[in-house]
Design goal:
about 650 residues, five-stranded antiparallel beta sheet, Beta-Lactamase, 19 helices, single chain
Amino acid sequence: MREFFRQLKVRQKVFMLLAIAMVGISLLNVGSNFWLATQNPIQQHLSVLTPLLHGSETKDFNSENWKRFLNQGQSAFTITDIAIYNVNGKRQNSTNDDFPLHLSQIHLTRLDHDTVLLPGPKFTLMAKVTAHVTEIFLLEVVIISLIILISGFLLIYVILYFINRLIIRPIFSLTDTTNEIAMEQNYGLRARRFYPDEIGTLAENFNFMLNRIEQDDMMLRQEKEKAEQARQRALELSKKMHDTNARLGFEVKVRARVEHKLTDFQHYLNNIIDSMPSAIIAIDHELKVTQWNKGASQITHIKRDDAIYQPLEESCGFLFTYLTLITDSLEKKVVNKVERIAFSANGQNSILDLTIYPLDDTTHSGAVIRIDEVTQRTQMEDMMVQSEKMMSLGGLAAGMAHEINNPLGAIVQTVQNIKRRLNPAIAKNISSAEQIGDSMENICAYIELRGIFAFLDNISQAGERASTIVNNMLQFSRQSPKKLQKQNLHHIIDRSISIAKNEYSLSKGYDFKAIDLIKDFDLTLDDVPCIPSEIEQVILNLLKNAAQALQEYKQTKEFDLDWYSQIQISTRRNNQMAELIIEDNGPGMDEETTRHIFEPFFTTKEVGMGTGLGLSVSFFIITNHHQGQMRVQSSIGSGTRFTIMLPFTAPSQEAPS
C-alpha cells in the first residue's frame, strides 16, 4: 500500500485522501441517521412500563392511581389520561370521558401518535401520552455529533500526516535547497527526490537546471578569465615598457625575499652547527672546505672566513696527515675514526678524536669531519687508570715497606751502636781500650785518619733516606680512617708556603725565596672538607718539585734577562668543587713523562735526588682520601700546571688515611 502511494501523482494522492475523508464522514452520517431512524422514544420508554401491569399489588388500582403510579416510574414522557378496560374490552373507569366505551370501537391503525395501549393479564390500559421528544432527540444528537467530530479530527490528522509526508516535506526540502544555493551560491548542491510524482519531477528538473546553471557559470568564469587575459594582453601591448620595468622590480623584490629567506635558513643551519660542542668541517669532492663551525675555530684558532672555500690542507693543516682516510671515506662511503690525536695551537696542547662521515647525497659528494676535544676525558681516563695502579700497588708497597724495614732497622741500629762504642766519653770504652794497652784518643785518631767516621755517617744518612722511602711507602698503603673537617683552603695554602720558605734552602739545590710567588685567591670560596696535614703535604710536594725544576731551568736562562722564576697559586669555584691551581714557568714535560708522572717510583731526577713517590702519594691523597681530582698539563718550554679539585661536600663515608 505504501509503495502504491509513492507511485501516485500529487493530484491523485490529494484526490484519494479527500475521497477517503468524504466517504468516511458520509458513512458516519448515514450510520447515525439510520440509528436515529430506528429509535421510537415513546415506544421504548412505554415498553419498560408493561411489566408493571403484572404486579399483584396494583391489580386494584383505578385510573387515577394508575396515572400517578406510571408517571412516577419514568421521565421521558407524561401520561395525561388513562382508561381501564376489562378482559371483555369494556371500559371500567377513566380519567376522561373522551375514551371509547369499548375496545372494539378503536381501530389500531387510526390511533393518535400520542395514544397507546398497554395490555395486561387481566386488563388493558389506554393512555394519552405527551412525550419529551425534544430532550431525547437533542441528547442523542449531541452524543452522535461528538463521536462524528472526534472521528473527523482523527481522520483529518491522518490525512494531514500523509499530506505532510507525501507533499509538504518534499516541497520544504526543495525550498531549503533553493535557499542554501541562494545564500552560498554553491551550484554544486542538488535537491533530493523523495517520490516519483510531480514534486519529484520538479526536483529532477530543478537539479537539471542547476547542472545547466553550473555549466553556464563555469563557462562564464572561463569567458571572464579569457576576457581578463585579453584585457591584460592589451594592457601589456599598450604599456609594454612600464610592465617590463614593474616585472623586473617585482622579480628583484621576490629574489631579494628568497635570498633573505635562504640567508635566514642558512643562518639557522649555521647556528645549529655552531651550537654543537664538536668541531664540524664539511668538504666537497675536491677537498675544499664548505662548512666550518665555531667549534672548529675554537680548536684550530682559525676564523671561519679564512677557512671556508679553501683547500683542506691550507685551512686545517694537521688533517693532511689523515688525507688517506678522508679520501677512503669519499670513495668507499665508509666511516673512519682516529682517536687520541695530539694537537697544539697557540701554545695550548689538547687531545682530539677524529671521525669522518661520507655524504650520501646523489647530487653532491663530500664528507663531514667531526673533531671532538677529548683532553679532559682522556685525562679522566688516565686518572682512572692511575687510580687503579695506585690501588694495585698499595699492597705491594706495604709488603715491600715491611720487608725493608727489618734489615734497615738492624743497619741503623748497628751504626748507632758502633758510634756509641767509639765514643771516648763512655767509661766502658775507656776501660776496654786500656785492657788492650791503648787509649780511646789514639783509637779515635786512627779511625778519623782512616775516614771510618765518614763511612759511618754515610751509612747513617743512607739509612735515614731509606727510612724516609719506607715511611712514604707505608703512608701510600695505609688505610686507617680519618674524619674530614671543614677547613679554609687559603689558610692551608699560606701555612704550606710559610713551611716551604723556612725549610728549603740553597743546601737543597734551590732557593725558594728567590722565586716570585703570585697568589690569585677567590676570597668568596667556601670551606672544604679535608685533612689539613695531608693537603699541606700535597702542596709542599708540588712547590718542592716546581722550585727544583725552576732552579735547573734557570741555568739555561741566565742570558735571558726578561725571564725570572715564577710560581702562581690560584683558587676558584668550579661548579660544586673548589679548584686549586699551582703553575710554574719552568721547562715543562713531554707527553710521555706527563702520562707516567703519578706512577710510584717514576722520577726524572738523577739517582739519589728523588724517590718517585711524592706525586704518587699526593695523587692518592687527593683521589682516595678526599674523593677529589688531580691532573697535570704540561708541554716542553711552556711550564707545568697542576690542578687539584676538592668537593665542597664531604663523602658519605670517612676518608681513609
